[in-house]
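Sequence in, structure out.
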Amino acid sequence: MTLKTLWYLNLADGDYPWIENGLYPVDFDRYRRLAETIDKGGFYGALVATWPNDPLASASFVASYTKQMRFLVAVYARMTPPKLLAQQALTFDAFTGGRLLLNLINGRDNIMQTYGVSTSHDDRYVLGEAYWREFHEHYRAGNPTNFPNTPLVIAPTKTDGIPLWGAGDSAAGLAHAGKVIDVYLTMMRGLDRIRGQFDTARASARLQGRQFADLGALASVVVRPTRAEAERHFYAMFERTGAEAIRAKLDEAVHRRTWGQHSLATFEAPDERRRGWVRSLLAGRLPALEELRLERRLFAGITAWSPLDIFDTGSSAVYFVGDPEDVADNIKAYHDEAGLSALILAAWPLIDEAETVSRLLLPRLAEIPTSG
């Protein structure tokens, strides 16, 4: 087996979708072309996230235009009755040859409240355990017709049920992962942090007599034929965004995360590197490229859904940057030293960068053997 490398199937697209005039308008034809690009490019699959379209409906829309990619569809536990979700999963799998994966989302309190869900963060994890057990039972049972004159049954495509992917860094999240999840995910960090996170997750699964099928991370990537080209393209996101816009986004993030207690000017970042970023931005300057390096070819950046990570709480806005050998070697170190066997990547524009990653990086990643 080789490393499972997925891309993002997302409407948050554009040259720099986090800045004014950098976000493409909603275009379902482009969404279809993105799915076709991922499929033909040799990716294992794509993460279909909640942004702002319904993920399962979106995956169903484009699935018929693809032949082999898997769809990792984001799902909130208990939002849909488990029997109905099982029926939807059975139908999707039957029509696609078993290409559905589910990404379990616990959700932030402010988002869940918009759906009328007031259960606390930790309680959602606990209640989710029973939900996913019931979902599996309904999926494995298949779904027969309610009409006796037409005795049809949609049988499960996968005898072991739908693979459940998901994260969980908190104590409640790790306990949930150990009991429920098949593929454990976390946000990309430095190698030592990832190794420690994976070790903690493995221990949680062992307590339940289980082990994960894969361990994965979400990250971003800029790969070019040469290291210099990759670094120029990566740093261009900062130059195009500008210090003022980055500062404004971070000020909003600090205000939200501290419940209005702090602004960027009063926020104390957790380490000297990040405090340096904040000082530069408050002075109207961009951090230099080298100041953004986290380790080796790993740099702190910006994505459509994450600002520069001054909080050090884990972020998909962490980029592998370099030539194909640089990036593949860095990813191989995560595999060899931490056990990474799945990777969900993004870069913008999504179609253009998927083509680049498919051409330059995927052949190198295919050389990394895994035991999964």
